[in-house]
What does this fold into?
Amino acid sequence: MTLPQPADLTLVIPCYNEADNVVPLIAGVRSALEGVNWEIVFVDDDSPDGTSHAVEKAAQTDPRVRLIRRVGRRGLSSAVIEGALSSTASVVAVMDGDLQHDEGILRDLVTPLLDHRADIAVASRHVEGGDSGGLANRWRHVLSQSGIRLAQTLLPMRLSDPMSGFFAIRRSLFVQALPRLTGTGFKILLELMLSVPKTARLVEVPFVFRPRVAGESKLSPLVMVQFLGMLIERACGGWLPTRFIIFAAVGAIGIAVNLLVSEAARFAGANFEMSQLIGTACAILANFQLNNRITYLDRPLRGKRWLPGLIIFVVGSAIGAFGNIGVAQLIYDTQGHWSRASAAGAVIGVVWNYAIASTLVWR
Ligand code: GDD
Ligand code: MN
It folds into this structure.
């Protein structure tokens, strides 16, 4: 009996609700990569439409098809990371699972890497011959363009399409970059490019971004928020985590809610204490919900974990408020600076709340 050859190329396909696209995608890859020793890893976040089942069925007739099914977790970047980590091939390629990425160019993408002529190959919609026509609407075009401009200011190398989700990378390079990846949001390529050594050899291959046929896009406003947070994190040299930046921004929204609601309550005839109480309660609830939906989007509290989470959050925030006031008082007493004292108090408060939220509430 001859042993099957190990794969030279692992194709990682992040997918969520792409059941109808699995079979055509595998067929496309089969004909595009004839003669290459490839394998496909679908990383599915337990999609309700049965994507995992579709992959399992395909795997029963082709041993090159593999599945990673993640339960209770979501996220494109982290899915890509896990797929790549499951590979032992020398080259890893990443492609969307919705047929928007033209598998016809896969060979052009991976050959320079397999031949040791390049270390990263990016399928680009913005080099000669490429096209982003498949973006859902005008709004997406504008967002995509501004995102690219913003990202390019941070990048040490010239890359025309840093937002592409279609690329190949030498696995050793990926492993080297791994400790610096946040694993949040959609922009894994951009993060990789910010993390690999400047000596990495880069090629760009044009491709035409196709419109989606089945299923729908998962790129939401929340993903944009995460993206901005990631850019700020990088611009700060990485010492402020994205999550903390988003957490602090949510906190600022909470302050606005507090002011608006307590003003409204006062206007409606509530006395001072009552209006403060209503304002604070609304602010805490708004903060909790926003954190649950945005800051901790990858591990939201649902069902019977929601209320206990809220209670810990409220108790934690109350303790934080005492700490906040205490520190401000201390600094005011010793230094006499009003604004410096309250700023220091606020910073302590946010850091404390963040610590509680990340360790006790959204574990
Ligand atoms: N496992 C997993 N988990 N997969 C996900 C998740 C998730 O939470 N969210 C999205 N995906 C998968 C989708 O199923 C799809 O295969 C791929 O990731 C891209 O998601 P889409 O929702 O189709 O994204 P898009 O078409 O709007 O975005 C495209 O353009 C971006 C640049 O504008 C993609 O090509 C992105 O990779 C690219 O960054
Ligand atoms: Mn898509």
Residues 9-215 form a domain with the Spore Coat Polysaccharide Biosynthesis Protein SpsA; Chain A fold (CATH 3.90.550.10). The chain has a mean pLDDT of 89. The longest strand covers residues 9-15. The pocket of manganese (II) ion (ligand 2) is lined by residues 96, 98, 100, 212, 217 (CB under 6 Å).
